What does this fold into?
Amino acid sequence: MRLKYVWAMRAWSTFVAITTIATAALTGCSGNTPQEPQPPKATSEATATPDATPAPTGEPQAPAGDAGGRITGRVMFVGEELLPMGVPTQRATSDHCKDKPIKHNALVAGPTSDGCTSSCEGRPRPLGDVIVRLPLGAVPANTKSGKSDKPAVVTRQDCVSNPRALAMTVSHPLQIVNSDPIVHNVAIHSLTPKKTMLNSAQPKGAEPITHTFTSPGLYRIGSDIHGWMRSFVWVSDHPHATVTDTTGEFILENIPAGTYQLEAWHSFMGLKRIEVTVIPGGRPEKITIEYDGSELEPPENTGELDDLFD
It folds into this structure.
């Protein structure tokens, strides 16, 4: 009985061995080799936070939605004394203008922090009519501005052209309005490069003259009749430009991340540049741009005050 059991066990072992060898042979013939176990793929669920902003780049891209950053600040006059403006002597030659002895508006500043408006002995004063802008080509033209689509307006009233400075984009319409009971002349000149774009009379009561700029650059709206009347228009290929009022404050919004040379241009004291870095979602640093009166007249507007006053 024991001999039969041993023989049966040997027969079973032989069958198992033959079956294993056959299975291995078939697997090798099929070319399918056992696969090594693979580690699970890494997945990331990290999201951007205000503390994890992308590093500024030299070639910023347009932000999605309102993801852009902001530049804020003030333009200040910090010299000993702002050059006083008088009444242009030529006003006396006009029937309407001579009745309104209004001082020239080439330099306009707000009061000091303690309310001083003249003889302020070097105390800083906020400077108005400064065009603050990013350079041409600095950002994509399709970034948001939040500005109105209504035409920009320059008004001639009491023989003064207001505003003195304004900023707009290419293809945005500009209207020049005559609010005086006399004939005015509208002369639009490109200053970069110098070229006459329009020259037209505008009688009293006439409809506004509308002009659309097709190229970026700096333009002057003057008058061949009343030479002291001037407005300066900065036309940009993107919406990131503005003009200070007598608070000296400015704000540029929805700017793509990056480092820029912020520009400030004043029609009497010229161009300033300051490097700024924009980080979307971060708190904007308040920038101060200073003029001290030692600056030369800009090449686009030299000699404006020559022989203008008594």
In short: The chain has one domain: 69-291.
